[in-house]
Amino acid sequence: MAKKKTIRTIPQERTPVQEQDPKERARNFEEVSLGYRLEEALVEAERCLQCADEPCVRGCPVGIDIPGFIQKITEKHYHGAYDIITDTNLLPSVCGRVCPQENQCEGVCTVGDTLEPVAIGRLERFVGDMAIKEGWANVPYIEPNGYRVGIVGAGPAGMACAADMAKAGCEVVVYEAFHQPGGVLKYGIPDFRLPNDVIDAEIDKLKKLGIRFECNTLVGRLFTIEQMVTEMGFHAVFVGTGAGYPSFMGIPGESLNGVLSANELLTRANLMRARDFPNFDTPLQPGKRVTVIGAGNTAMDAMRVSLRLGAEKVFCIYRRSKAEAPARVEEVHHAEQEGIEFNWLTSPVELLGDDKKAVRAMRCVRMELGEPDDSGRRKPIPVPGSEFEIETDMVVFAIGTNANPILGQTAKLKLNKRGYIQADDSLATSIAGVYAGGDIVTGAATVIQAMGAGRKAARAMKAYLGLRDTDGVYAPDTDDPAGRRFGIPVEEHNFARVRLR
Amino acid sequence: MNVPQSSSFEIVARADFSDVTFLLEVRHPMLAKAAKAGQFVIVMEHEQGERIPLTIADFDRDAGTITLVIQAVGKTTREMQQNCRVGTTLFAVVGPMGIPSHIGGKKKVVCVGGGLGVAPIFPQARAWKESGAYVIGVLGFRNRELVFWEDKFRACCDELILCTDDGSAGIKGLVTEGIKQAIAKHADIEELVAIGPPIMMKGCAEATRPHKIPTMVSLNPVMVDGTGMCGGCRVKIGETVKFACVDGPDFDGHLVDFDDLMARLGRYKTAEKEALERFQESCRIRGDENAPEPVAALDDRPSTDG
After folding, report:
1. 3 state DSSP class of B163
2. Which of B33, B40, B230 is best to mutate for the A interface (most A CBs within 10 A)?
3. Residue B34 in contact with residue A223, Cβ under 8 Å?
4. What is the pLDDT of residue A418?
5. Which residue among A153, A271, B70, B181 has its CA within the 20 to 30 Å range from the CA of A161?
6. CA B247 → CA A226, A244, B32, B97, B233, distances in Å?
7. A97 or A153: whose pLDDT is higher?
8. Which residues from B are below 8 Å from A149, CB to CB?
9. How far apart are CA A501 and CA A107, in angstroms?
C-alpha cells in the first residue's frame, strides 16, 4: 500500500468531466457526458482516501468493492479494476451512468464530509467503457449443474439475476415481450444518457455466459408462470417484469390528442426510433411547446427528448419545490442547462383542447408547502386564485406507474393491495421456486435497485436449488480482513479473462 | 413444451380477398396453442417497422399456425401487402395479448363483423357455437365481390345474414339493418358481439341499447407495446379510463365513448399520411409493378362501416 493519504494531501477539487455544450447537445442525441479521459480518471482516483470504514461499499446496492477498484486505477492496473467491479456488478458502463450516486456511494463518501465526494460513478464508467473499448470480458469457469432457470423480463433485474444463475452453472433462458432485450435501459433511458451500443455490449457479455434471450415472448399469455415450472422444466423462475401501467391524474382533458405518458413518448423515441421517422416507421408528432408533469428522472428524460425532437419550449410542472424533486441532481442540472423552464410548486388542473380534440393549453394552479405528509415531505396545497394557463401542444405525464396487471391476471401469484407481487425478504413469491424482484415488487425505483433485487433473488434461488453461493455477493460479515471473500482470495477470482474481439 | 423462436416467423399461406384485404397464415405453434377468441397479436414486419396490433382471425393448433387478416390502409399494412409472401418471415410476432372474450352461458347470440372486423369475429362465432349457443352471424361488405369466408361462417352459424352496401349479396344496407332483422325475428337474443370500425360498433351498440341486449365490442386503438406499458390505447369506458391492451380489448359497447376513441385514432394522421406518401413515392421510383395507387390517403379507409 502506498503512503497513507489524508484529506489534506488528496486533490481538493472534484475533477470535472467534459460535457457537450448545452446549446449544441439540446438538439442532438449524442451523449451529454463525455466521460473521464485517462489523466482525469487518474487524478480523481487519487482523491479516494482508502479509508478503513468503506461507507461507500455499504452505500452501494450491490456492494461493489469501491476502494478496491479505485486503488487499482491509481496503480494503472485498469483490467484489475474491471475484475473487481465485475465481481459484483455486471454492468459498470450502465451503472456508472445512471445510478443516483449522490444518494448511494457518493452520498456517504468519507471525503464528502469535508470536500466534494469522490466521483465514484464517473470512475466506474471509465473502467466499464475501457473494458468495452478493449474488448475485455470476464467469463467465469462454469460447471453446468443441470438446473434450468427461467427469467421473465430482460430488464436490469432479470439481467442481474440471469448473470448470477448462469455463473452458478444453471442453464438460463430470459424471456422478453419486446423485440429487443434491455427493458427500461432500451425503451426508457435515452441515448444521450445511456447509448444503445453500451447496452448491447453489456448484453453480449451476458450471452457469453451462455444466457439465451427469447424476445417476442409475453409470459402470462403465451405460457404461464405455472407452466414454466410444471411443463417447461424450469427448476426456478425469476419474475422481473417492471412496473408497467403509467399513471394519469384524472383531470379533465387527458384523452385529448397530444396528451401521453412519458413511457409512450420515450418508447416511441428510443426503442422504436421515432426520432428517425420516416426512416423508421413509428410515428411521434413532436410538440412545439411541450409540458411535462413530474420531476423524476423519467420526467427529465421526457423533457430532454422533447427538446431534441425539435420543441421550441419545454416546461416542467411539479407540485412540490426543487428540493423535493425525485430526479438525480445531475439530471435536473442538465435539464436546466439545456433551457427547460421549471415551474416548481405548480399543479395542473385541466387540459384544454381545440375543435380538433387536440390539446392547446394547460390550466395550472400555484401551490404552497404545508405540513409534512406521510412521506415526511411538506404537503403541497393549492393557492386560491392563482390559476393561470400555459399554451402547449403536447402534455406528457411522468408521475409514476402502477402495477402491470398481466401476471396477476394469469398466474396464481399472491399480490399485495397495490397489485404488486408479494415477495418475502428473500424475494420468494407465493409459488414454490418462483422469485420476483425489481419494480414489480417494490413499485418504480432505480436501475441499480432492480439489479440489486435480481442478485438478491439469485442468492435465494441458489439456496433453494442447493447450490453453493460463491460468486462474490457482498456480505460484510463474511469478508475477512485479509481480503478473502467466501474463502477465495481476491487474487484468485473465479473467472477467466477473455477478449471479445 | 418447446421454447418459442425469438425471430423469423414464417408465412405459410396467403390469400387475397380484394385489392386491399389479404390473409396471412403464420407459423407459431406455441401461439396457436395459447390463443383464444378475442385476443390479438402485435406484429413488426421488419426491424425498422412499427408495432401494429392485429386481432387473431383464426388459429390451428394442429398445424401450429395463426391467421391474420389485414387491410392495407397505411404505410405498414401496404408494405406488408407487397412484401409478405409464402416463405418470407415477419420480424416480430408477439401474443396472444388481451383478455380472451368471455364465451359461454348464453343460449342465443349475434356475432357481427364489418370491414376489418369480419375476420376477427370468426373465432368468436366458432367459440360460441362450440359452447352450445345458437349463433346468428351478421356480416357487412361493400359488395358481393368482397365477400370472403362465407362458407366458414355458414359452418358455425345457425343463421347468417349478409349485408352489402349495394344489395349485390344478402340484404341491402349496413350491418345495423341485419341486426334489426335478427332482433325482429328473435326476441330471446342474450348477447351481441360486434367487431369492426368504431363507427360500425357504435351503430351496433345503439341498435341494441333500446332492447337492453348486452353488447360486447372489441376495441383496436393505437398501441405501442401491447403490454400495458405505454398507455397509448387508453379508452373511456363509462366514467373510468381503461387500457385496451391489458384491460380489454373487449368492453361493454353501451359504455364505450366511441367519439373519444375515433378522435384518438386520428392522432398520428399527419405522420401516417407522410409515411404513406413517401412509401408510394419510393415504390414508383423503384418502378415496382405492384406499386399501390398514389391517390388513397387515410381519409379513404376502405369499407368503413360494412
Report:
1. strand
2. B230
3. yes
4. 85
5. A271
6. 22, 13, 22, 10, 10
7. A153
8. none
9. 37
Hey, are the CB atoms on A257 and B6 less than 8 Å from each other? no
Q: Where are the alpha helices (DSSP H) in A135-195?
A: 156-167, 184-187
**Cα separation, A76 vs A417, whole angstroms:** 52
- Cell of residue A269, nine digits: 423515441
B154 touches chain A (CB under 8 A): no
Contacting residues for A8 by C-beta, under 8 A, at least 6 apart: none
215-254 in B: which are within 8 Å (CB) of A? 224-232, 234, 236, 241, 243, 246-247
Beta bridge partners of B243: B234
Query: CA of B92 to nearest chain A CA: how many angstroms apart?
Result: 6
| Residue scoring higher pLDDT (B306 or B216) | B216
Among B229, B241, B263, whose Cβ lies nearest the Cβ of A257?
A: B263
Q: Which residue has cell 428524460? A: A301
Q: Do B99 and A285 touch (CB under 8 A)?
A: no
The alpha carbon of residue B103 is apart from the nearest alpha carbon of chain A, in Å, by 17
Calpha distance A487→A295 (Å, rounded): 46
Cell of B45: 414486419
Cα–chain center distance at B283: 27
CB pair distance less than 8 Å for B6 and A215: yes
3-state secondary structure of A200: helix
* Sequence-separated (6 or more) residues with CB below 8 Å from residue A421: A239, A407, A413, A414, A415, A429, A436, A440, A441
Write down the pLDDT at residue A469. 62
User: What are A458's three cell numbers?
Assistant: 439469485
Judged by DSSP in three states, A477 sits in helix
Is the omega angle on the peptide bond into residue A11 within 30 degrees of 0, that is, cis? no
B-chain CB neighbours of A283 within 8 Å are 50, 268, 271-272, 275
Closest partner CB to B275 (pick from A173, A257, A281): A281
Interface check for B83 against chain A (CB to CB < 8 A): the answer is: no
| Sequence-ordered list of residues with C-beta below 8 angstroms from that of B291, at least 6 positions apart, any chain | B280, B283, B284
The answer to whether ipTM exceeds 0.90 is: no
Looking at residue B296, its pLDDT comes to 41
Contact of B93 with chain A, judged by CB distance below 8 Å, is answered with yes
Among chain A residues, the shortest Cα distance to B45 is held by A281
Helix %, strand %, coil % for chain A, to 5?
35, 20, 45
Which among B30, B50, B225 has CB closest to A281? Answer: B50
What is the structure's pLDDT at A475? 35
Unique residue bearing C-alpha cell 434471450: A213
| The pLDDT of residue A500 | 46
Q: Over 60: is that where the pLDDT of A306 sits?
A: yes
For residue range A111-149, list pLDDT tens digits in order: 999 999 999 999 999 999 999 888 887 777 777 888 999
Widest CA span of chain B, in angstroms?
59
- By C-alpha distance, the chain A residue nearest B100 is A221
C-alpha cell at A97: 451512468
User: Of the ranges A279-283, A343-347, A402-406, A466-470, which is most confident?
Assistant: A343-347
Q: CA-to-CA distance for A213 and A64, rounded, in angstroms?
A: 26
Residue of B nearest to A217 (CA): B94
For A224, nearest residue in chain B (alpha carbons)? B34
Q: Pick from B22, B306, B17, B15: which is nearest to B146 by CA?
A: B17
Amino acid letter for position B260: D
